[in-house]
Design brief:
By secondary structure, the chain is α+β, with helices and mostly antiparallel strands. The protein has three domains: 63 residues, Nucleic acid-binding proteins (OB fold (Dihydrolipoamide Acetyltransferase, E2P)); 82 residues, Orthogonal Bundle (DNA polymerase, domain 1), CATH 1.10.150; 42 residues, Orthogonal Bundle (Helicase, Ruva Protein, domain 3). It has nine helices and five strands. A five-stranded mixed β-barrel has the order 1-2-3-5-4.
Amino acid sequence: MIGRLTGKILEKNPPEILLEVGGIGYEILCPMSSFYDMGDSDNIMLHTHFHVKEDAQTLYGFISKDEKTLFRELIRVNGIGPKVALAILSHLNIASLMSAVANEDDVLLAKTPGIGKKTAQKLILELKTRLEKLELSQGSHQKITSSNSNPNSLKASQALQSLGFKVKEAKKMLSAITDETLSTEELIRQALQNK
């Protein structure tokens, strides 16, 4: 509905700014990364996402179109609302988020306020294939590629972690396996042999 706004910043009160556009002041919630990119400039252009709920209509703003795209991917995940998505983008920049999903780094994602370990794992599971297909406009943010394209590798990694292995240990053990047709059980068995 409202895709982009250009105007003068009247107030900054993180995470909210008041942006005057044509004599109208819009209250817009922005991730902290957008606040840092704004610097001291008075006039800015924001890519926006208009979110409507039963009891509220909220406008979210982003300096880059890539941030808006990732925000929309995040809120598509069941259980992740706009406020949590905003917290994720405030905690991690685009490259860090893409890297965390590609490397299945649920520990880094779980450091975001409002995200627990299970939610982080769910985010990774749902976002991994979607972010691999995603084409971002800025060349500095490369597309993510899966190091192990076996769909069972995440389950095997979680099983190894429940056995007491650290995330990086489990990833290292699984990365040595090149056969992409193995079941979860076969992956775990081979990973334990590789240790």
